[in-house]
Specification:
Mean pLDDT: 80
Largest sheet: 5 strands, mixed
Strand content: 5-15%
Low-confidence stretches: 1-25, 402-408
Number of helices: 23
CATH superfamily of the domain at 541-672: Histidine kinase-like ATPase, C-terminal domain
CATH topology of the domain at 541-672: Heat Shock Protein 90
Radius of gyration: 39 Å
Number of strands: 5
Structural class: mainly alpha
CATH architecture of the domain at 541-672: 2-Layer Sandwich
Strand order of the largest sheet: 1-2-3-5-4
Shape: flat
Distance between the termini: 84 Å
């Protein structure tokens, strides 16, 4: 019997590994089966369902892959009956953009999801998913009160005792945790854990165990919190949940920090930091940096703490996480305040020592050396501590030794004889000091006058230089504009007028001149259009991006509407007060004209989308159609695309053309604003 028990104990680790391997294999097989459905390209609801399930699967594994599948779902959901899958993709992309550091994109997708809900009233599942995405978005942004109504509405909507309700209880508990309501948080987490256990959902159990660990950690029950974290980690490792393992690793670092096991805590944080950077999880990286700063502060390693808090502030500001930004900034300010107090105490002690040295109280001076040694030892500056300890010992010995008594008697005998001489010498020194002080005052006055005159002269020179440089720049700009106008007049207007002249002579010489007259009409129309564009680009009234958009809309209507091509403009609000130089405005508009003409002539599309916005001090401009597209590798690039590339290069911009057969064409342009 004992031998059987021993064998079972030896086999238990192997059986556990085999179970984990089977779980991982099953997940891999499930993903492969979904991918095979997509390869068939049926473009039906089955493919949409597979794409959405793949997006969900890769949320915990690879956010870039999840994003790709989410975008494919949106591209394929092109009918009202497919709104369910479109809404699901919007909700997933909201989380993906937020976790990868693009809060503005997340807000935009969330807005599209809200519009879809309004277009499909009465669909409970879609409303549930939208509320879930909105609640998590605002929660992760640190706007906990704004997130709460979405969570509570979902709890009211969804009464079925299934995984959706269990997940809702988990998320609601996390939100109560953020609001500091740990009692309600633990209650929701325990309800969610019981429901996940009934449903045998391991992933949900791992999340609830993680959250219960957080609840007890904030109640300072560190041993209980550690137990829940370790149970959660065991399940997450079994599921190969990289994101979940990361969260639990960070939490265990927090527990070890509060248990004063600093080395274990630092090891957990460093491991978590490497994973966040590898997975490009900027929100988690911000959190780890903040917690690392708290650890180093507790370890009295102020430089490392200051570096961690500074990096956390920079990342949280980029992501729009106001809560983490304020917390890191507060800790950094406290560090600076401690450093200032430390320097103030050190300065006061050194001032007191200097006073004792000046006044000659050697016994008190020796005592002050001892206090300074103790102060530097407390602040881990052992070199200075040893230095002042040696000073204390040397001075204490000289003050209390036998040789001091002999010196005192000799000094007493000399005192009376030298007293009168010292008084006379002091009077002489006072007179010399007064003379030196008067001379110093005169010198200071002279230096101040010279400095003021120098500052005025330098200021005048700088102002004059600024005016000259501005004048030169304006002249150069005017010269460049004149050259451009001359070139345009010569190349476009001149050549067109020459052609009209030749055509008119031929028309006069021939009887059947309808063809020449038609060409004259065409050339003159082209010349009028070119002249109109030239006058528009030079006129300073049109310097704003807003005026440029008006011109673009007029041109788009003129070209696309006769061909029954619908079009739309998406404009960012930041464009309202934005102005461009003549050269940039002109070239952007000409690139736009070329792209619209190409879409109208060659794309065979029925819809064109134009979007323009501002990001990172750059103007982002794109024109896309749903036409037949083309294969860039097999199609010869024409003069139109070459002209657009040349114009983009002239204004330091970057232009890109994307197209696939059957998937339309997109022209995107990025131009620096300044």
């Amino acid at each position: 019997m004992k031998s059987k028990i021993i064998c079972l104990k030896k086999l238990l680790p192997f059986l556990l590994l085999l179970s984990i391997a089977e779980t991982n294999f099953a997940q891999t097989s499930y993903i492969d089966s979904l991918k095979r459905i997509i390869v068939l390209q049926r473009h039906d609801t089955t493919e949409l369902e597979a794409l959405l399930l793949l997006t969900n699967e890769f949320l915990r594994r690879d956010l870039l892959q999840a994003k790709r599948y989410g975008l494919e779902t949106i591209a394929l959901s092109d009918t009202p009956s497919e709104a369910k899958w479109l809404g699901g993709a919007y909700n997933y992309l909201t989380a993906i953009y937020q976790q990868t550091g693009y809060p503005d994109s997340a807000k935009n997708v969330l807005r599209l999801s809200e519009e879809l809900i309004k277009q499909n009233p009465g669909k409970i599942r879609m409303l549930y998913n939208y509320n879930q995405a909105s609640g998590l978005f605002y929660k992760n942004q640190g706007e906990f009160k704004r997130a709460l109504p979405y969570m509570l509405e979902n709890l009211r909507i969804w009464t079925k005792q299934d995984e959706n309700r269990a997940g809702l209880l988990l998320n609601l508990g996390n939100l109560y945790f953020n609001l500091g309501n740990f009692k309600d948080a633990a209650d929701c987490h325990l309800q969610g854990l019981r429901l996940f256990e009934q449903l045998k959902n391991l992933r949900g159990q791992s999340f609830c165990l993680q959250s219960l660990g957080n609840d007890f950690f904030n109640l300072n029950q560190l041993v209980v919190a550690k137990k829940y974290y370790e149970r959660s980690l065991q399940i997450k490792e079994q599921l190969a949940d990289k994101r979940g393992i990361l969260n639990t690793t960070i939490s265990l670092g927090d527990v070890y920090k509060d248990m004063n096991e600093f080395k274990k805590s630092e090891a957990n944080y460093q491991s978590a930091l490497a994973v966040t950077r590898n997975m490009k999880l900027m929100d988690e990286e911000t959190r780890v940096l903040h917690q690392s700063g708290l650890l180093y502060k507790r370890m009295n390693e102020k430089d490392k703490a200051r570096e961690s808090f500074s990096k956390s502030m920079a990342l949280s500001k980029q992501m729009g996480d106001s809560v983490t930004y304020v917390r890191s900034r507060s800790e950094l300010l406290n560090l600076d305040l401690d450093e200032q107090n430390k320097k103030k105490i050190e300065s006061q002690m050194l001032d007191g020592l200097n006073t004792l040295i000046r006044t000659g109280d050697r016994q008190q001076e020796a005592l002050e050396y001892h206090r300074l040694s103790a102060y530097y030892a407390l602040n881990r500056d052992f070199e200075k501590s040893l230095y002042y300890l040696k000073k204390h010992e040397a001075l204490a010995d000289s003050v209390e030794g036998n040789a001091v008594l002999v010196q005192l008697k000799e000094l007493e005998e000399k005192y009376n004889s030298e007293k009168q001489e010292r008084e006379i010498e002091l009077l002489k020194k006072d007179q010399e000091l007064q003379a030196l002080e008067l001379q110093q005052q005169r010198s200071n006055t002279t230096l101040i006058i010279i400095a003021l005159i120098s500052v005025i002269v330098i200021a005048l020179l700088l102002v004059n230089r600024y005016r000259v440089m501005n004048r030169i720049k304006r002249q150069a700009e005017l010269e460049r504009i004149r050259q451009n106008i001359a070139r345009d007049l010569h190349d476009d207007i001149g050549s067109t007028l020459s052609s009209i002249n030749i055509m008119s002579k031929l028309a006069m010489q021939q009887h059947d001149n309808s063809g020449h007259l038609q060409k004259i009409a065409t050339y003159s129309s082209h010349m009028m259009e070119t002249m109109s564009d030239m006058v528009w680009s030079i006129n300073p009234v049109n310097d704003s991006v807003e005026q440029m958009l008006v011109k673009m809309k007029e041109f788009a209507a003129e070209i696309l509407e006769p061909k029954n091509i619908s079009y739309s403009f998406e404009e960012a609000s930041e464009l309202k007060n934005l102005y461009l130089t003549v050269d940039k405005r002109k070239n952007i508009f000409l690139i736009f004209k070329e792209a619209i003409n190409n879409a109208a002539k060659y794309s065979e599309s029925n819809e064109v989308k134009i979007s323009i916005g501002v990001k990172a001090n750059r103007l982002h401009f794109s024109i896309s159609d749903n036409g037949k597209g083309f294969a860039p590798d097999t199609v010869k690039i024409g003069n139109g695309l070459k002209n657009m590339a040349a114009r983009a290069k002239d204004i330091s911009g970057v232009i890109e053309s994307k197209s696939e057969p059957g998937k339309g064409t997109e022209i995107s342009l990025v131009v620096p604003i300044t």
